[in-house]
Design a protein that fits this description.
By secondary structure, the protein is mainly β. It has one domain: Lipocalin, CATH 2.40.128.20. Helices cover 0% and strands 77% of the residues. The chain is built from no helices and 10 strands. A 10-stranded antiparallel β-barrel has the order 1-2-3-4-5-6-7-8-9-10. Strand 9 and strand 10 form a beta hairpin. The two termini are 14 Å apart.
């Protein structure tokens, strides 16, 4: 396991309004079979205090697993639709993730960039178009 720093730029577009957030956090980088994994603690800034996020990257696919106060697994693969549940303190929601684009460039040490663009629907209704850009140092 190795310590890395991740700079996350998150953009969420809802009804023509764009919200942007930036977070710089420490993470643990490790390998799990064919996946390169990054685990970090979420913050209040992102609205997810008490949650641990694990980002898993492998050829053509990314998974984001959140555990703690929030519980979900989101799968991203260009051109594919995945369904998942999102468990919160207020109940469970049904998610649909439509990946618009996915790219990453990681060196053998796990440093590099991860970019994801996706549509998020909750209970069948489009909520937002999201973009995540992560720089791993």
């Amino acid at each position: 396991m190795k310590e890395v720093r991740i700079k996350i730029n998150a953009q969420q577009e809802t009804d023509g309004e764009v919200d942007e957030m930036e977070l710089i956090t420490e993470a643990e980088m490790f390998h799990d079979g064919e996946w390169t994994c990054y685990r970090y603690e979420e913050t209040e800034i992102m609205g997810m205090a008490g949650t641990t996020t694990t980002l898993k990257v492998k050829e053509g696919k990314i998974q984001m697993i959140r555990e703690g106060e929030l519980l979900t697994q989101m799968d991203f693969e260009t051109g594919k639709t995945y369904r998942s549940s999102y468990q919160t303190a207020f109940g469970e929601l049904s998610l649909q993730i439509d990946t618009l684009s996915l790219s990453y460039s990681l060196d053998p040490n796990g440093y590099g960039k991860v970019e994801i663009s996706y549509k998020l629907s909750i209970d069948g209704t489009l909520q937002s178009v999201n973009r995540l850009n992560m720089a791993i140092h």
